[in-house]
TrEMBL record:
<comment type="function">
    <text>Catalyzes an early step in the biosynthesis of tetrapyrroles. Binds two molecules of 5-aminolevulinate per subunit, each at a distinct site, and catalyzes their condensation to form porphobilinogen.</text>
</comment>
<comment type="pathway">
    <text>Porphyrin-containing compound metabolism; protoporphyrin-IX biosynthesis; coproporphyrinogen-III from 5-aminolevulinate: step 1/4.</text>
</comment>
<dbReference type="InterPro" id="IPR013785">
    <property type="entry name" value="Aldolase_TIM"/>
</dbReference>
<keyword id="KW-0021">Allosteric enzyme</keyword>
<keyword id="KW-0809">Transit peptide</keyword>
<dbReference type="GO" id="GO:0006782">
    <property type="term" value="P:protoporphyrinogen IX biosynthetic process"/>
</dbReference>
<dbReference type="Pfam" id="PF00490">
    <property type="entry name" value="ALAD"/>
</dbReference>
<dbReference type="GO" id="GO:0004655">
    <property type="term" value="F:porphobilinogen synthase activity"/>
</dbReference>
<keyword id="KW-0149">Chlorophyll biosynthesis</keyword>
<protein>
    <recommendedName>
        <fullName>Delta-aminolevulinic acid dehydratase</fullName>
        <ecNumber>4.2.1.24</ecNumber>
    </recommendedName>
</protein>
<keyword id="KW-0150">Chloroplast</keyword>
<keyword id="KW-0456">Lyase</keyword>
<keyword id="KW-0460">Magnesium</keyword>
<dbReference type="InterPro" id="IPR001731">
    <property type="entry name" value="ALAD"/>
</dbReference>
<keyword id="KW-0627">Porphyrin biosynthesis</keyword>
<dbReference type="InterPro" id="IPR030656">
    <property type="entry name" value="ALAD_AS"/>
</dbReference>
<keyword id="KW-0350">Heme biosynthesis</keyword>
Length: 428
């Protein structure tokens, strides 16, 4: 289905360990008759290996040369081919009709697994996944009630273990979300740019352990805001744009300083991409990328995430900065701005309810597109599967494939490790 790439634990080597060596294969592969080879491999293996394994015995045991075989056929003594298989019978009562006359039968291209695989337009691979990770100050991991299977990871050990697991199945990109103690929250969110804060500490730890890990960070004030908003809240409830952008720049620089590869502003303030680009460049971080949350909608599907971080807005909603779910064209305005301001990657969020918007961006920019399969999308599938209403593996892989088909290059998904494990298993 997809290229094995350099995915640790997923490749042919694993198939060999599971099924035996070339030597083992040679022993079990019987050879029948002159030039006719039948292979009964002990388990599914790439065809190339089978051919290699039997090549030697054919040459040694074949009594006739190619010339002799050819001469036989020319003389009219072609060896017998297997009989034409009998036509499978239809159930009794099937109407006897003459076939419809139609030149195009699209089902012809779907009739076998090999044909379906050959014509598959979209693929998914662990290389397309970005794994969101929740971290907290604790030593132990703590389960997240609204996101079964996800945890707030202890920043020192739990985090490292989870990243080990991810890399083992080929997921080498993560994005960090901190659960900040209430005592460190304030109305101006200044903890967001503390160089020794939770996120910078996690980045340094991860980079020390896994230098080639791609680390994305979230740029927004909500985990640090005593109001639970992405920006600074004025007395009358207004979210202050330019003052917030000032804070976000400091936050992005602190993250870059700690070693972040990609900073991702999720706040939806106007002009933040350009301002952050400038701040990063001024601080010497020309090589740090910006993944802009370009079309981020004011969505009910963020509910479980806000429980995970305890970051629910203390009042009101986020509709003055996040986009109206009813709007499509408006995503183009955001796209043009983020592009002009120097974004490297454009994001659509949530993913499944906004596949049309992913396609809109795909058709209107040459930049890579990311899509965020958000907490609510994750919990919905988990809950349906837990209730026995859905086949979880099929639903997850279909949802990810659909997001790719709509035009996303990379997907932020809480299913990243599980989905990568399933994909690796399919390859063997
Ligand atoms: C906050 C932020 C949110 C998410 C990512 N960054 C929540 C929000 O905007 O309220 C949501 C992710 C998810 O639901 O999985 N800046």
């Amino acid at each position: 289905m997809m290229a094995a790439a350099a995915t640790p634990g997923c490749g042919v080597s694993q198939a060999l360990t599971a099924c035996g060596s070339h030597e083992g294969l040679r022993r079990v592969a019987p050879v029948f008759g002159p030039g006719v080879v039948s292979v009964s491999a002990p388990c599914k293996l790439p065809r190339k290996l089978n051919v290699q394994a039997v090549a030697e015995p054919i040459a040694k045991s074949s009594p006739r040369t190619i010339e002799e075989c050819e001469a036989n056929v020319v003389a009219g003594n072609a060896p017998a081919a297997p009989p034409v298989p009998a036509k499978p019978s239809a159930p009794e009562g099937t109407p006897a009709i003459s076939p419809l006359v139609m030149p195009a039968r699209p089902r012809r291209n779907r009739r076998s697994p090999a044909l379906r695989a050959a014509f598959q337009e979209t693929t998914i691979s662990p290389a397309n996944f970005i794994l969101p990770l929740f971290v907290h100050e604790g030593e132990q991991n703590a389960p997240i009630g609204a996101m079964p299977g996800c945890q707030r990871l202890g920043w020192r050990h739990g985090l490292i273990d989870e990243v080990y697991k991810a890399r083992d199945v080929g997921v080498n990109s993560v994005v960090l979300f901190p659960k900040v103690p209430d005592a460190l929250k304030s109305s101006t969110g200044d903890e967001a740019y503390n160089p020794d804060g939770l996120v910078p500490r996690c980045i340094r730890l991860l980079k020390d352990k896994f230098p080639d890990l791609v680390i994305y960070t979230d740029v927004a004030l909500d985990p640090y805001s005593s109001d639970g908003h992405d920006g600074i809240v004025r007395e009358d409830g207004l979210i202050m744009n330019d003052e917030t952008v000032h804070q976000l720049c400091k936050q992005a620089v602190a993250q870059a300083q700690a070693g972040a590869d990609v900073v991702s502003p999720s706040d939806m303030m106007d002009g933040r991409v350009g301002a952050i680009r400038k701040a990063l460049d001024l601080a010497g971080h020309q090589d740090v990328s910006i993944m802009a949350y370009t079309a981020k909608y004011a969505s009910a599907f963020y509910g479980p995430f806000r429980e995970a971080l305890d970051s629910n807005p203390r009042f009101g909603d986020k509709k003055t900065y996040q986009m109206n779910p009813a709007n499509y064209r408006e995503a183009l305005i955001e796209t043009r701005m983020d592009e002009a301001e120097g974004a490297d990657i454009l994001m659509v969020k949530p993913a499944m309810p906004y596949l049309d918007v992913i396609r809109l961006l795909r058709d209107n920019t040459a930049l890579p597109i990311s899509a965020y399969q958000v907490s609510g999308e994750y919990s919905m599938i988990r809950a349906a599967a837990a209730a026995g209403m859905l086949d979880e593996k099929k639903a997850v892989l279909e949802s990810l494939l659909s997001i790719r088909r709509a035009g996303a290059d990379v997907i932020l998904t809480y299913f990243a490790i599980q989905a990568a494990q399933w994909l690796c298993a399919e390859r063997v």
